[in-house]
Amino acid sequence: MGGWQGIGDRLRSDRRWQVGAIVVGLVLLGLALWPREPGPTGDGAPLRKPAAGPRPEVLGFFENGWSPVFGDSFPSVRRRPDLIDTISPFWYSIRSDGSLDPLEVRDEVLDFARRHGIAVVPLVNLLQSGGNEAGFLVDPAARQRAVAALVEEVRRRGYDGINVDFELLPPEAEPLMSRFVRELDAALPRDKRLDISAFPKVDVDPSVHGGHNWQVFGRHADRVILMAYDRHYLGSAPGPVSPGPWVEANIRELIRSGVPRRAILLGVGAYGYDWPAGAGPGNEANSTPIPLWQARRILERHRITPERDSRSGNPHFTYTGEAGQREVWYLDERVLAERIAMVREHGLGGIAIWRLGYEDDPFWNTIERAFGSRPSR
Fold first, then answer.
1. Could you write out the DSSP letters of every residue in 221-254?
2. DSSP codes, 282-321
3. Which of 52, 69, 143, 312 can bridge 243 by disulfide, Cβ–Cβ 3.0-4.6 Å?
């Protein structure tokens, strides 16, 4: 789940989520006065379901797939179930009235995960083909309807929890977003976890991250997933997707906000972007996301050796394709190894991969060398 129209651009380019930047225009005058909850006192803040054991958690975002390039995540789960602790499938959205809109929920995925001891924590967002549904936050009845629907779905399907991924909410929406988090936390059974996907804040415009209150997340979420990517994105000029110093600064800021270290999962990418070479901002129509395996295929086809930017640590290359000269920046297993080192240095809970199906064997080999296979459940 950088720039930070970045995540919105990624989702706009992906599948059915054709959505503009989310703007909550229904915020009431009194929202700015909503009391903000203080953060936790430190890393000892209680979690409903703490990350267990010394091995860091490996969470994979999961999509059903919609094209040969942006394919199904399930083959990755079947191939390496020994390395994956949790999957977070993109299976639900919330409508404007607070009702739940399920996408294609797949029983074969649930059955496989249960047989192999993989936790299933579906992701719920505000994105539908109809566009912005953020207005449900304003209506207390709609909020309660959403909370009740999520809790019932978790119970009915036996999920291990829910992942809240509400993106591009402006600062005026923060009191309502925080209230929704508190209400959902209170309603979920104690043995079910609440994950929240959070935008970076360092060097990111408040119009992108302003709806996210890290202190509230730290008090109420069992996992806070730092989406440490998309510093450059479809709508920007070409550049590094996840610069190391920027990621490090955001980790430190998230810890300073009071989120317990072991509750933090560091978002790691297995993808990049393919832009027109030398393009400026505003080239979304001529740019595309690119999975790691596809970037590798282009390198092999054109017999190119990528360069690595010394400042960001991200690899990049140029090539000539059907659309002319192209510039690609992407994230590979070496960047992954650097992020794993950050997880260890800061004592974080683990990593969250965007997304399963984008990675390749060297990516998995890096995880296996670093973490080993997970204990059987």
1. -SEEEE----SS-TTS-S--SS-HHHHHHHHHHH
2. --GGG-EEEEHHHHHHHHHHHT-PPEE-TTT--EEEEEEE
3. 312
Question: Looking at residue 259, which CATH number applies to its domain?
Answer: 3.20.20.80
The backbone torsions φ and ψ at residue 159, rounded to the nearest 5 degrees and listed phi first, read -65, 160
Tokens matching residue 75: 């083959």
Phi-psi map region of 59: left, alpha, beta (phi>0 left; psi -120 to 50 alpha): beta
Q: pLDDT by residue (tens digit) across 203-215? A: 999 988 999 999 9
Produce one character per residue of 264-280: b if its CB has 16 or more CB atoms within 10 Å, e if not.
bbbbbbbbbbbbeeebe
| The model's pTM | 0.87
Q: Which residues pair with 228 in a beta bridge?
A: none
Assess whether the previous peptide bond of 355 is cis (omega < 30° from 0): yes
State the pLDDT at residue 302.
98
Which of 31, 35, 61, 38 is closest to 218 using CA atoms?
Answer: 38
Residue 362 belongs to some domain of the structure: yes
pLDDT band at 47 (very low <50, low <70, confident <90, very high): very low
**Which domain range does residue 241 map to?**
6-28+51-269+332-371
Residue 219 forms part of a structural domain = yes
